[in-house]
Amino acid sequence: MANTKQHILDAVGPRLRDLRHRRGMTLAELAEHTGVNESTLSRLENGTRKPTLELLLPLAEVYAVPLDDLVGAPRTGDPRIHLRPVTRHGMTHIPLSHPGGVQAHKLLIPPRPDTEPEPKTHEGFEWLYVIAGRLRLVLGDQDLVLKPGEAAEFDTQVPHWLGADGDRTVELLILFGKQGERAHLKVRTA
C-alpha cells in the first residue's frame, strides 16, 4: 500500500509539468495565476515538494481540470463527465470532456456593453455553436453576429474575440483542436 501511494505521489510532478507545457505557460505565468510562488511550483514539478490540497487546488482551477486528473486517480466505471465550471475573464467555461485530444466546452459569456474587443490568437482550430443569445465574433477584419443555431469554425491563429451581442448572456458549445488548450496570447499591432 505504501508503494502505491508513493508511486501516485511521484507521478504528480511530471503530470503537472506536462499540463503546464501543453498550455504553453512558464512557471512565472503559472505563479501569477495561482498565487503559488515559482520556486514551490518548480519543486512540485521536479518531485522535491510533496503535493498538498492547498497547492493542487489552485492548479486544478487554472488548468480547468478535476483534482483527480492532477493526481492520476483511476477512472471509475462511471462514464459521465463531472462538470466543474471555471470562470475566467468574466466568462464561465464548463468542460464537457476529459483533458486530452479535442476539448469540448460549454461557454457562458455575460453582456459587457463597455468592453472593447481585444482579439487574441493561439495555436489550433476552434468550432463553436450558439445555443442561446447572440454572439459577437470578431475574426480578423470581420465583425459578425451569430444567432442561436448558427455555427462557425476558424483557425485560432487568426486574431479573434468573442462577446455577447446585446443585453443577454450568450451560451455556446465550443470544440478546441489539439493545440487549442494553450492560453490566448495578446495580439500586438504595429
Q: What's the short story on this structure?
A:
With 190 residues, the chain is of the alpha+beta class.
Give structural notes:
With 190 residues, the protein is of the alpha+beta class. It has helices at 2-22, 27-34, 38-46, 53-63, 67-71, and strands at 86-88, 91-95, 103-109, 120-121, 125-132, 135-139, 142-146, 151-155, 160-164, 170-176, 185-186. A hairpin with a 2-residue loop joins strand 6 (135-139) and strand 7 (142-146). Helix 1 (2-22) crosses helix 3. The longest helix has 21 residues, at 2-22. The protein is elongated, with a radius of gyration of 18 Å. It starts with a helix and ends with a strand.
Name the descriptors.
6-stranded antiparallel beta sheet, single chain, 3-stranded antiparallel beta sheet, 28% strand, 190 residues, alpha+beta
Summarize the SSE layout with pairings:
Elements: H1 2-22, H2 27-34, H3 38-46, H4 53-63, H5 67-71, E1 86-88, E2 91-95, E3 103-109, E4 120-121, E5 125-132, E6 135-139, E7 142-146, E8 151-155, E9 160-164, E10 170-176, E11 185-186
Antiparallel strand pairs: 1-2, 2-3, 3-10, 4-11, 5-8, 5-10, 6-7, 6-9
Helix pairs in contact: 1-3
